[in-house]
Amino acid sequence: MFAPSLAQEADSVLLNEQECVELDKKGEAPLTTNSAMFALLRDRLVDLDELLKSDVSPQEAWAQIDQERIMRREIARELQHAANGIYKVDQESVTADEKETDIRLRSTASEYETVIELKLGDNRSARDLRDTIESQLVKKYLSLETRRSGALLITLSKVRDWDHPDSGERIGLEELKELLDDEARRVEREMGGAVSLTIHVLDLRPRLLTEKQSRSGVMKKRVNPA
């Protein structure tokens, strides 16, 4: 029998007096459910997007990183800076040679966790990224009752296309996102709502280059309408 869905779990949450105090003090409620961890995860991923657009953006430095273990350190550091006392970045899973590329956020108020599986997208195939969702993110990390949510976080530092794993057609970033989102929803349904997944791309490409490519794509559609 499947565990209650995260949506059902969220509906049943009531804060006690101490948790209300923490909410008033920190502006964020203590993390005591899987659904709360998933909401936090999505918020912090959006915060990373905002960081990349800020005056202190690490975009140029991160774009030069070509090893997942180093990118993991950088992202984990930023997530720790944003912890606000409600979670910690769990380093227990990091081995001496840093082969693990996951980033785990653990609540300071409970045993609940959420996990980020990191992939550098510059040289990964669409099939590899799609297969990662179920084979690594879900099967490897989300078996615990207190860890039922996760993200596939993809960094991209160059303009590129991918081969669609089924049709073989060339696809761009938006089509890749759609492909991965569809796979995440399929896995969620297969798990009976017991897990919640999100796909997030950190775009590290030069801003002017991506804007130029976007305008070029629009022009091509106008010249060659479907």
How would you describe what is shown here?
Helices cover 47% and strands 17% of the residues. It contains 8 helices and 7 strands. The radius of gyration is 19 Å and the shape is globular. With 226 residues, it is α/β, with parallel strands linked by helices. The mean pLDDT is 86.
What's the quick description here?
This protein is of the alpha/beta class. The protein is 47% helix and 17% strand. Strands 1-2-3-4-7 form a 5-stranded mixed sheet, sandwiched between helices.
Cα shape: globular
What percentage of amino acids are in beta strands?
Answer: 15-25%
Total domain units = 1
Strand order of the largest sheet: 1-2-3-4-7
Major sheet attributes:
5 strands, mixed
Order of helices and strands: HHHHHEEEHEEEHEH
Structural class: alpha/beta
**Portion of residues within helices:** 40-55%
Number of helices: 8
- Nearest-angstrom radius of gyration? 19 Å
Number-wise, the strands total: 7
Distance between the termini: 46 Å
Mean pLDDT: 86
> Spans with pLDDT under 50 lasting ≥5 residues?
none
